[in-house]
Structures are given as structure tokens and as C-alpha cells.
Amino acid sequence: MFNNINLNLYKDFYLVCKYGSINKAAKESYTSPPAISKSIKKLESELNRQLFYRNSDGMMLTSYGEKLLFYVEESFNSLNVAERTLVEEDTLKKGSLNIGIPSNIGSFFLFDNLIKFHNEYPNIDVTVVTGSTSKLIELLKSHTVDFVIDTSPINIELSNDYTIKELAKVNYCFTASKEFDTSKIKKLEDLEKYQLILPIKGTANRNDLDELIKEKNINFNNPLNFHTSEMIISAVKNNIGIGYVIEDLITKESDLKIVNIDDKLPNVKINIIYNSKYLTVAPKKFINMYIDKTIN
pLDDT (tens digit, 0 to 9) for every residue of the chain, 296 residues total? Predict the structure, then answer.
């Protein structure tokens, strides 16, 4: 049977699964909807199984279709890795590097090394995608990115194929503009009197801080809650108040300062998440050069 496998049928099946409709799959493969439809019917006939339910909203996989997709997706991912590996080779004259990382981590943990890597291997296409942990992990699972760098906790179920490895620990701090008078701030409780700009509630970094102030019976009155570190830093620069961010984010900010207090503030682990099976030459090279020499 192997000698008679028509890979084009499986490619059309995969595209319909990926885009959810015959029309979109046809557009992506530069062919006609009837041709895609014919491929699906032929594949169903050869396997003697219905692979899709057809409805007005598009194509929905049957249980047989879901089983087939698992193996087809793995096969196409393996082909993609094989192609990239051969193209990239050891000289790295061609290839790609795709990284998923939150923007606040990327700005201090990744940026300088990316510039060095690009200068050394200018023909490697570099793409950095930012987003939430859940979004980045989905991109990793779909092989849109080669690896993810993110902070703990990684509360998303991953198979044993994936490795989560701690790379570093970074500290949080309170920060203010250089002209902001912080001379009366010695302890965490002193911050009750000031306008604070904090990460939004429910995020891991905010939860750690909330646990600390609850333990110390401190109440921050009406803080501003911003979704990104960039927004917090911008508000601090505009003298709106005192912000709470990762310390490394402000070390290069000439117009900001750390508000030193006696209390120990939370720290956070930075991790790399990857599937070694799908790491090609370029991402391996970048990781070994700048992140972790033990990953191969």
C-alpha cells in the first residue's frame, strides 16, 4: 500500500483541516474548490471512512478524520523539519529562526543576542512573536515558533515531548521617575500613600505581589492596573505614579530609578520551552550560542 500513497491527497486533507473549508484550502494551494473536493472524496473512498461532516459553516472532522489528522500533521511537520535541516545545514547560509516570547522579557533577555546572531548569520530569517503564554504555547505546538521563552508558571498541559527548562531568575522592583521624590519610602507599607501602577489582577506577577501585601496586612488604595510592562513604564515616565515591573527592564532607562525598600519582593523564573524533535540547525545554534549550551 505504501507504494501507492498519493501525498497530494493527504496534503489537500491537511489544508482543509487547517483552514476549515474547501474554498480556503483551494485558495491556499492555488487550485480550484472542485479539485480539493475531489481529493477529499477520493481519500475517503480509499480509506473507506468518512473524514468530514459537511455543513454551512464549513468542514468538520469526524472521529476518523481526527485520528488521521494526528498522523498527517506529524508527517508534514517532520517533512518541514527535514527540509529546514537540509537547507540550513551547518553553514547557516539559509534558514529561519522563529521565537515566541512576551515583549517585556524579550526586550532585555533576547534583544541584544538577536542582533549579534543576525550580524553573524545575516541570511537567516528571524521572526519574533509576542503574546500571552497560552498563545505562544499554541504557536509552539503548531510549529509556528521553534521555541518559547516565558516566565513561570507555565500552567498549560504539554506532552512529554516538550521540555521546560529554567534559564534564569529575575527580580521585580518598584520604579519611579528620577525627579519623583521617594525619600520617605523605606518599606513596602510606605507605598500605601502613593499612586501605584501595577500589572492587572490575575496575572502571575500580580498574584505574587498581592500575596505578599496580604501577608503583611498592607492595602494599596486604587492602583492603576495596566496590562503590559511597557504601559506601566510609560505611565511612570509621565510621573503618574510608582510602577511595579521586572528590574531588568529599567536598568537601561536613564530617566527611571529603582525605589529601594527593605522588604524582599517576589522574583520570577524565566524558562525555555521546546520540543527537541523539531529543533532545526538555526534555532539550535542560537540556543547553544546565547541561551543554553547543554541543549542539542
Answer: 455 788 899 999 999 988 888 889 899 888 998 999 999 999 999 999 999 988 777 788 999 999 999 889 888 878 877 887 777 776 788 889 999 999 889 989 999 999 999 999 999 999 999 988 999 999 999 889 999 999 988 888 888 889 999 999 999 999 999 999 999 999 999 999 999 999 999 888 899 999 999 999 999 989 999 999 999 999 999 999 999 999 999 988 889 999 999 999 999 999 999 998 889 889 999 999 988 776 66
Host H or E run for residue 60: strand 58-61
Rounded CA separation 264/212 (Å): 9
Q: For the chain, which domains are there?
A: 2-72 (1.10.10.10), 86-168+270-290 (3.40.190.10), 170-267 (3.40.190.10)
Helices (H), 62-219: 63-88, 103-109, 111-120, 133-141, 204-215
Phi-psi region of 221 (alpha: psi -120 to 50; beta: other; left: phi over 0): beta
If one counts every other C-beta atom within 10 angstroms of the C-beta of residue 227, the result is 10
| CA atoms of 59 and 160, how far apart (whole Å) | 31
Helix then strand then coil, in percent of the chain rounded to 5, is 45, 20, 35
For residues 157 and 140, give the distance between their C-alpha atoms in angstroms, rounded to a whole number. 13
Per-position b or e across 33-70, b if 16+ CB within 10 A of its CB: eeebbebbeebbeeeeeebbeeeeeebebeeebeebbe
Give yes or no for a contact between 149 and 290, defined as CB atoms under 8 angstroms apart: no
In whole angstroms, give the CA distance from residue 35 to residue 55. 19
Distance CA 247, CA 232 (A): 13
